[in-house]
Amino acid sequence: MVQSVELLLDEESERRIRRQWELLAEAGLPGLGHSARAGDAESHRPHITVAVARQIWPRIENDLDRLPFRPFPVRLGGVLIFGARRPILVRAVVPSEPLLAWHRRVYQVVAPCPDVPANLHPNHWTPHITLARRVLPQRIGEAVTAVAADKDITATVAGLRRWDGDRRRAWPIAEHG
């Protein structure tokens, strides 16, 4: 499985992304809302993944805990599709200096860990929030239509958390109400 570090959104922005998950589910598409309704709402939150590794060691975790965090704004942009055979529907997060600076900080801390994917290295990262995984290619147009009406919004990154895919557990590193 994977270990990750994720940026969390403010409540209003999270609510808007959850609504997009619901729209996909209402259209009979594989949105992430199914997992959130299954009682997994706290660990299954809209997020921006900034680092992934096969394992994040305890000393790295301590270094992450020491990163000073302050909320900052981001812009959630249009809908994108990653992949072709098993498409993933995402909402772009427009790169900004604060967002890229946070990505670089976290990457520098996590880089010594095993199996950090190349697409998460600085200058190779595409910031996004996942809306749906494994959308059938013949239904991708329907999926885009279900969520494309939601215009760009300004959101606030309100916290940082760790995700442990082996234990299916998440916990805050830093979070502001």
Description:
This protein has 177 residues and is of the alpha+beta class. It has a domain at 3-75 and 98-124 and 154-167. The protein is 29% helix and 32% strand. It has helices at 11-26, 33-37, 58-65, 97-110, 140-147; strands at 3-9, 47-53, 72-82, 88-94, 128-132, 153-164, 169-175. Strands 1, 2, 3, 4, 5, 6 and 7 form a 7-stranded antiparallel β-sheet that branches. The longest helix is centred in the first third of the chain and has 16 residues, at 11-26. The two termini are 30 Å apart.
Structural key phrases:
177 residues; alpha+beta; 7-stranded antiparallel sheet; globular
The main β sheet shows up as: 7 strands, antiparallel
- Helix coverage percent of residues? 25-40%
How much beta, percentage-wise?
25-35%
Shape: globular
Order of helices and strands: EHHEHEEHEHEE
Based on secondary structure, the structural category is: alpha+beta
Tell me the radius of gyration.
Answer: 16 Å
Give the low-confidence spans. Answer: none
Global mean pLDDT? 90
Structure described in brief:
This protein is α+β, with helices and mostly antiparallel strands and 177 residues long. The chain contains 5 helices and 7 strands; from the N terminus they run E-H-H-E-H-E-E-H-E-H-E-E. Strands 1, 2, 3, 4, 5, 6 and 7 form a 7-stranded antiparallel beta sheet that branches.
Blueprint (SSEs and pairs):
Elements: E1 3-9, H1 11-26, H2 33-37, E2 47-53, H3 58-65, E3 72-82, E4 88-94, H4 97-110, E5 128-132, H5 140-147, E6 153-164, E7 169-175
Antiparallel strand pairs: 1-2, 1-6, 3-4, 3-6, 4-5, 6-7
